[in-house]
Design a protein that fits this description.
The protein is an all-alpha fold and 128 residues long. Helix content is 73%, strand content 0%. The two termini are 23 Å apart.
Length: 128
């Protein structure tokens, strides 16, 4: 499986609503974030070899913190990476809400936003 399979799956779910739409919506939000997480690992850790800048937090926080490594890139790439860091953190917050805040409604428009944002983040990560 490659990371694009995850994004394609999200798009497929958006195009084929389930009878249990509230579950599908949460799954789309979660999977869209995970696409960006895996893309971050592929591009920032594996391809670029950028270092973690945060030793606190979980594996996701540490992995995403690589986008703030200022030792391996020119100023423009650092700025682009910092923006991607913020965007990924915003998706991560929505993923946490989708996965753990079951009492909070998750509209379909949020899932649509997450898929579009994940696609743009993926393009940005591959361009670093």
């Amino acid at each position: 499986m490659n990371t694009l399979d995850i994004l394609n799956y999200c798009q497929e779910m958006l195009n084929q609503p389930s009878e249990i739409e509230y579950m599908q919506t949460r799954n789309i939000v979660s999977r869209a974030y995970y696409f960006t997480y895996y893309e971050c690992i592929n591009h920032v850790e594996n391809r670029l070899g950028w270092n973690e800048t945060n030793q606190k937090g979980g594996v996701h926080a540490r992995a995403i913190s690589r986008l703030l490594d200022k030792t391996n890139a020119d100023a423009q790439k650092q700025e682009d990476a910092a923006l991607l860091y913020t965007r990924m953190n915003n998706l991560k917050k929505l993923r946490v809400r989708a996965d753990y805040k079951l009492e909070v409604k998750m509209p379909r428009t949020t899932a649509q936003y997450c898929v579009g944002e994940a696609e743009q983040i993926g393009i940005g990560l591959s361009s670093l």
